[in-house]
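Quick one:
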Amino acid sequence: MRSVIAIILTTILIPVTLRGDEGKWTPQQVLEQGQAWVTARGFGLPLDRLWNAQAGGGLLANAVQLPGCSGSFISADGLLVTNHHCVVSILQEHSTPQANLGKDGYLARTRADEKASKAYRIQVPRAFRDVTREVLAAIPASADDVARFRAVDAAEKSIVAACEAKPQTRCQFATFDGGLFFTLTEFEEISDVRLVYAPPEMVANYGGEVDNWMWPRHSGDFALLRAYVNGQPYAPRYWFPVSTEGVKPGDAVAVLGYPGRSYRSFIADEMAEREEKWFPAVRDLNADWIRVLEQAGAQSTTVAIAVEDELRSLENTRKNADGQIAGLRRGRIVEKQRAADARVKAWVASRPEHASAIEGYEGLARLNAERLRSWDRDFLLDVIARGPRALRWPTQIARRAGESLKPDAEREPGYMDRDIPRLRDQVERDQKRYIEAVDKALLRAWLRRALALPADQRITAVDEAFAGATDAAALDGRIDQLYAASRVFDLATRKAMFDERPDVLQARKDPLMALGFALDAERLRLKTRRDAASGATLRLRPAWRRAVIAEAGRPVAPDANSSLRVTFGRVEGYTPREGLVALPQTTLDGVMQKHTGQDPFDVPASVQRAHASARASRWRDVTMGQVPVDFLATADTTGGNSGSPTIDGKGRLVGVNFDRVWENVANDFGYNPEIARNVNADIRYLLWLLDDVEHATGLLKELGVQ
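Output:
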């Protein structure tokens, strides 16, 4: 029987020329579009080498899922490459003021020197399945929106549970374009992951926030890990040979990975909410929290190590939000989407088979308007999950306690039996990030916003806990009281709390736990509303998207949703603005030209010494006469693609994706071939670092280049 995905694709596939290299394609879609389609993108590999449905694998399966990132194996002994910024938590875990791995880098000279992580897991894909029929069959014909959501939620949990009956297996259910189709990915989960190599920060994050999202870039954003199973190096089914030839302008490449979230399926009203509400709020709150972390880190190396990974994440997200806002406005993306929506509605008017699309569109607009009514309040409740520990830890414990009373299949995602080992790891791992003075300042920034909410959006739990704190001094005093009276910050106590029932926790009379329970009750009311909205979206968006795809008359890749995707492109420069042409490659000479001796342009002495003979290095690019550092391509990437392997048309690793250019940040809402450029660290730069700087002959031999 043909899959639902195949049916959807064959109803819309007609001979067309795709606009640029747009599309984050699923493995199934790559197969459906065929060998000629892949060959036209510069890949001479047989299609079944990219993906073989019968074998459940292929080169695409060498895109490995990391926490928030992607990676790939590059040796038969489980050596894996990703971005440096994807392993900052491991560097932090092993850093001290006397040995700051994040700042100075690390190289394991032997396998015995590789540094294990207590909480880092990776997933290696081994099977993909279209489960659309199973999911849709689980929805009762008469289901209202809440029942529809619950039916899909129950089907997801059942499908995942059956998949995870196998040992060391993690399974991921994915919803595409609001319910147009559904897939299941089966992963082998590996929990023994060890750090092999990370360059110094002033190689990996050269240019810091000044250069972040910018071009030209000169960052060696690499890290090497090794996966182990039963104490032995993991033997992957697939790995990429590293290319010693590299790339040149015009070369075909593909980026494989797990892009997190994009918004191209949104209607104009939903895009406007992102531009006018979401990104400004994220930018402003992150800016406040960044100031707190920077000021505290400047006073103490210990504090700087504790906050390093969160600071990097906040900075990246803040600048991304700035770029999204600027790109949405510069490209008039909302206005263009409104025109596109109108075009589809006009097309639908004469096609009765798509009559439900108008209802879908209008329903999505109503849902968006409803969200806006309590938007500011809901945003503050949402960010608790990544906010100060004084809120994050108690609400997580309260939720864990409440969910533990339910049958496993009825619990919220994230609190099922399958999730408990990860939560336990986080309880202990997160302690190293906790600094009381920092946490109080983060809480103060959150509370200022919560206490300033309009009357119709108040958070009752906050109003009651901070009643009478009408000025800054009173607020600080109340915060001090809560911290002094709570045992949540003690690791041993918090570990005990993690397994206690709600009545036992409440009997502790811990003031922060009381606040945690109250905030979780507020969150549950919000979840109830969102469950109904999600059920409505499952009904409305597919009807609209079917019409959008049919009107387009060409293949349309679904929005990113953290499932495995491949995007094709070419090495190519661009014109960032009138009068300027950006070349697609940078070199080690450019690194030295930026060198000031001050952060963030302070080249390590070892790199400076090796640069003196770099023009004679075997890793130089013959055309440029220098060691290459980074390159641009037209691949369609987004967040989550960090660490994604960039391969050439022969299936060899030529780079590691780590960023996009500033003009392309709003690419999440629409692909513009003129400015759609992703930024890759050239694999030859990594080889040069290992060879000429670190003299890591063992690793070079393992990579087959010694």
